[in-house]
Amino acid sequence: MSFLFVSSAQAQNKKIDKLKTQSEQLKKQMAESEQLLRTTKKDVKSQLNNLYVINNQLGKQQKYVDDIQTEVNSLGKDIDRLKLRIDSLEKDLNKCRERFRRSVMYLFKNRSFKSKWQFILSSKNFRQMQRRLRYASEYARYQKAQGVILRQKEDVLKAEQTKMLQLKGEKDQLLNEGKQQQQQLDAKRAEQQKVVNQLNSKQKQLQSTLAQQKKRITDLNRQIDRLIQQEVAAAERRRKQEEARRAAQAKKNNQSAATANNNKGKANAKGATGNASTAKPTFKNESQEDRIISNNFVANKGRLPVPITGSYAITGRFGAYTVSGLSNVRLDNPGINITGRPGAQARSVFKGEVTAVFAYAGLYNVIVRHGNYMTVYSNLSSVSVRKGQKVEARQNLGPIAGDGSGNVTLQFQIRQNTSKVNPESWLAL
Q1: Are 353 and 396 contacting, i.e. CB atoms less than 8 angstroms apart?
Q2: pTM of the predicted model, to two decimals?
């Protein structure tokens, strides 16, 4: 039982340490994202971007508050179990004290040296004297053992009471932290509602801005889909060509070997003066290389670097979702939107080859192939790479264009061949 409580306490300490680390990370992230909200522009596009940042903050803050509440509940259960254990220890200790008290009273009543020896010497025979002597000795040892047991039980009880105070202190601290975080969460919700009210008062402009954004995303992704399909088709052609070359080379090698065997006798008879050899061409197995790169890419799932330099906030989620606070606003994102500070650069998340660099609506887009996977970086103001160039992980691809709110926003996608996947599960966010 004691071991279980020690293990539970150790687990709780780890959880609390994790919460402390999470708190420090949250404070840093909130401070960084606050920098993204310092625009004073009141146009719909800027306010909409601000709403995305605020919603990102709310999500992180709410998760932290929920984690605190979960830990408080867990501590409460541990405290209840500890109370039951302390009650059991106190009952056991009281019984032990009562036994010790009775034995002390008995010794007090028979405390004289004379009465002890009178008890022994009044034996009827030598055998009885031995038994009484052994009894007196064993009773003395029993009395001493009872004293040791009593002290041990008191020490265990004090340790459990100390543990109880520690758990209560940690619970009170978490409750206080939770209260402060809830106040910050309420303030952030009020800030969100203020932006929402401003946007709702400009419903016509809002719908127009959203329609423009949706059209731009649809047209851009149609072009991205076309380029990716072309690259996938080209990779398949290269694979088939490589297989045909290898098959032809194998056939040629077999024919050469047969010819060499047939002419071996003739060559020996003529006494060839030299054995000149012809270099065999080496063919690169592209599909195998793609397989290796793909496997390495998959092995780093959840650990890929964020594709933007500096502080950032996720302002657009993957797939279809509604914008918190806005009614009848539903967006569909083939990737994620990452907002950063002016001057932030887009960077490759893994080594690969640039398969496309193209412009759309005055902005640049880069596609990097990593075997059977591709990453797409959109909304760049310029590019520092070219098609066919090999790039390394964290290599800058170009500066990200402004989003109209004083910040910059990168649209990032990951594709497995032509299938879209959620980048958030791949990045070390």
Answers
A1: no
A2: 0.61
